[in-house]
Amino acid sequence: MSQESTDRTEGDLRNTGMALKHDRTWDYEIERILQAVSERNASTVGLQFPEGLKRRGPRVADDLRAELPDGVRVLISGQPCYGACDLDTEMMRRTDVFVHFGHSPMKESEKIIYVPLFSNVEVTPIMEKSLAELKPPEEEPAVGLVTTAQHMNKFDEMRAWLEERGYEVHVRRGDERLTHEGQVLGCNYASADVDADQVLYVGGGKFHPLGLAMEHPDKTVIIADPVNNVVTIADTEQFMKQRYATVHKAMDAEEWGVIYCTKIGQGRWEIAEEIVENNDSAYLLTMDEVTPDRLTNFGLDAYVNTGCPRITTDDGPQFKQPMVTPQEYRIAIGEEPLEDLAFDTFHGTW
Ligand code: SF4
Q1: Is 308 in the pocket of ligand 1 (CB under 6 A)?
Q2: Closest CA to 223 of 133, 314, 329
Q3: What angle do the packed helices 207-215 and 237-250 form, to 10 degrees?
Q4: Whose CA is nearest to atom 3 of ligand 1?
Q5: Is residue 13 pLDDT above 60, yes or no?
Q6: pLDDT tens figures, 266-301
Q7: Predicted local distance difference test score (pLDDT) of residue 25
Q8: How far is residue 251's CA from residue 274's CA, in Å, rounded to a whole number?
Q9: Ligand 1 centre from 268 Cα, in Å?
Q10: Which of 15, 85, 87, 179 is the best mutation target for the ligand 1 pocket, counting ligand atoms within 8 Å of the beta carbon and taking the most?
Q11: Helices within 78-186 (DSSP H only)
C-alpha cells in the first residue's frame, strides 16, 4: 500500500537552503507494518519520521488506524530525527512495533522495522547532463559512483547506464555504518574510497557531496542532483575558509566543553573521554540534541563536538562560541598542524 502525496513533500534539506521541486510518491509499507503487528500481537506501534517527513506522520497513522484491530495504539515520535543514528530509544522501549521511516538500517534489529522511503525521481536525465562535467571514458574510464539511501533503489540502473557509455564504474561498500554498496552518509564517505579520480554523486542537495569532496580532496566530485535538476562540481573552498576561521577563534579558548552525544548512533565516548583526560580545563557535557541554546548557560570559551559531525560543520556558525571537531581541537591546542585539517567522519555503529 502506498500514499499519494497531494502537496509538496519536503525532504530533510535543512542545511542546503534548497527545497524539493518534485512531488513524490512514498511507499510507507503499511502492509509490512500491519503484518508485524499481527505476528507480534502488538498493542502499541511507534512511528518515527525524519524532520522533512514529520507532517506525513498523522496521515500514515490514519492509514494504519484504519486497518489495525481495535485497541492497538499508534504513537508518533516528536523527537528530532536526522538519521538512522538517531532512533527514538525511549519510544522503542515503550512500543511493541517500532517503525523508523526514511533511512536505511545502520544496525539491524528484530525490534525495528526500517522503511527506507526510496525516491521515485528518475536519475538518468540528470546523469545525461552530468556527461558535460565527467571526463569522457576514452580519456578517463574510471569513475566512482555514490548515492544516498533515498536513491539506492536506482543504483544498479545508474551503474549500468555509465557502463553502457564505456565507463569502468568503481563502487564499494563503506564500513558497517553503511547498509549498501555505493551509499554515503553525511558523516561517512568510505564508499567513495575507490580507485578513480572522478566520483559521480547522484542525489539531492549539496549536503553530502561537500563532505565527500572534503574527505577525498584528491578527487573531482561531480554532483548530479536529480531532485533539483542541476549538475555542479563540489567546491570546498568556502567551507574550508569557514573551518579555518573557527579553528583560529578556538585557539584563544581557555575552557572547553566536550560534547558527548547520547543519541544511540552518535556517541564517541573514547574520543570525548580522551580529551578531558588530558585537559584539566575541559569539561565533559552530555546531551542528545546539540543546539546553541543548550550551550549558552555553560559559558565556556569553545566546544568540541564528538556527536554528529554535520552539527559542527553545517550548524557551527549558529553557535556563539567556536564549535570544533575532535581533530580541529587538536589543531587549536597545537597538537596537529593546521594544514592537516580534514573532514570529521564517523565510523562504526553501537
Ligand atoms: S551522525 Fe551521520 S548519519 Fe547521523 S545525522 Fe549525522 S551525518 Fe547523518
Answers
A1: yes
A2: 133
A3: 70
A4: 83
A5: no
A6: 999 999 999 999 999 999 999 999 999 999 999 999
A7: 63
A8: 19
A9: 13
A10: 85
A11: 89-94, 124-130, 155-164
pTM to 2 decimal places: 0.88
Non-local CB neighbours of 277 within 8 Å, separated by 6+ positions: none
| Nearest alpha-carbon partner for 320 in 261, 246, 258, 266 | 246
Rounded to the nearest whole angstrom, what is the distance from the C-alpha of residue 177 to the centroid of ligand 1? 10
Ligand 1 contacts CB of residue 115 (under 6 A): no
Contacts of 282 (CB under 8 A, 6+ apart): 255, 256, 257, 258, 275, 276, 304
Determine if ligand 1 sits within 6 Å of the CB of residue 211: no
Ligand 1 pocket check for 346: Cβ under 6 Å:
yes
Cα 221 from Cα 206, distance rounded (Å): 11
Which domains, ranges and CATH numbers included, belong to the chain? Answer: 3-115 (3.40.50.11840), 124-233 (3.40.50.11850), 237-340 (3.40.50.11860)
> What's the whole-number mean pLDDT along residues 235-247?
93
